[in-house]
Amino acid sequence: HTFAFKGHINCNWLQALEVGIDPAHASFLHRFFEDEDTSTAYGKQFRGASAGSDMPMTKILREYDNPIINVEHTEYGLRLIALREIDEERTHVRVTNQLFPHGFVIPMSTEMTITQWHVPVDDENCYWYAIFTSYSAPVDKKKMRDQRLELYELPDYKSRKNKSNDYGFDPHEQATETYTGMGTDINVHDQWAVESMGAIQDRTNEHLGNSDKAIVQYRRLLRQEIEKVSGGEKPMLFLDAAHARSIQGPATMDGIGPTRGWEIYWMEVDVKRRRGAPWAAPVPSEIAGKIRHLSAAE
User: Fold this and answer.
1) What is 62-74 written as a DSSP string?
2) For residues 53 and 196, what is the distance between their CA atoms, to the nearest angstrom?
3) How confident is the model at residue 293 (pLDDT cuts 50, 70, 90)?
4) Facing residues of 94 across strands?
5) CA gap 26, 66 in Å, rounded
6) Nearest-CA neighbor of 106 among 85, 123, 128?
7) 19, 88, 110, 133: which sits with the fewest CB atoms below 10 Å from its CB?
8) By the 8 A CB rule, do 151 and 187 touch?
């Protein structure tokens, strides 16, 4: 029920991480002007239908591009909730997580999640390691691998689309098909975004805005934990054998639920998926407790 892959990025690990904890960027960087048949979306990020509907994710991101972003501090890092109101009755809810120090956990589809780590090679290069986890059927590993080998070359796992060939940029495609004009693989879009800033971006020249609130909170957390280590303390998620199992896998969700009541809706979707899994997928105690409390109140 899992599949793993990696890819090389020519920039420092922090830049590679931060694109994944920016919920607003997907509406622009990964914008598709036309929607495809969602039944062919297996193994592709942002190409399927959102849970609880038959609305393609591409349509949601394109037409509702100004999400409300909530950031919550957790025992493992940050929980990010992006809300895109469809109408008075329905809201698109996307729940992702920053897993301290250099990972994130996000929904891939209604059945699958991605846990992705950004591991430094040196100050100017890193690898992303993605673990895809299916809550229902076993992963089609051959298909997933073949899809990714269309872009990445072995043995170095470097992208065939890169700075040397303008990341495959096609001006006609940009005018008619995609926002970037760089093809339909979102890994290329992300790679261009983080590499084009330079291997080490000068953050003193940045002007962060409201949609960057998750990045702001993460940087504060990172500096806080660096200070702790400097003072001889252990940082967040420095776990010994006795405490490692106390941290449960963060919840993810991408679905369209009620505008009033989305707070419990996303938890119910995650719990239902975990309890229906053919493998041991424990429900995080925090979420299980909230659902029991709210059910009793009703």
Assistant:
1) HH----EEEEEE-
2) 36
3) low
4) 82, 254
5) 11
6) 128
7) 88
8) yes
Point out the least confidently predicted range of 201-210, 220-229, 284-293: 284-293
First to last CA, the chain: 36
Six-digit token pair at 74?
């957790």
Helix (H) or strand (E) holding 95, with range, is strand 90-99
> At residue 40, does pLDDT exceed 50?
yes
For residues 218 and 228, the answer to whether their CB atoms sit within 8 Å is no
What residues does 8 pair with on adjacent strands? Answer: 127
pLDDT class for 142, splitting at 50, 70, 90?
very high
pLDDT at site 298? 43
Query: Would you tell me how many other CB atoms lie within 10 Å of the CB of residue 254?
Result: 26
Distance CA 223, CA 270 (A): 31
Quick check: helix, strand or coil at residue 231? coil
Helix, strand, or coil (residue 8): strand
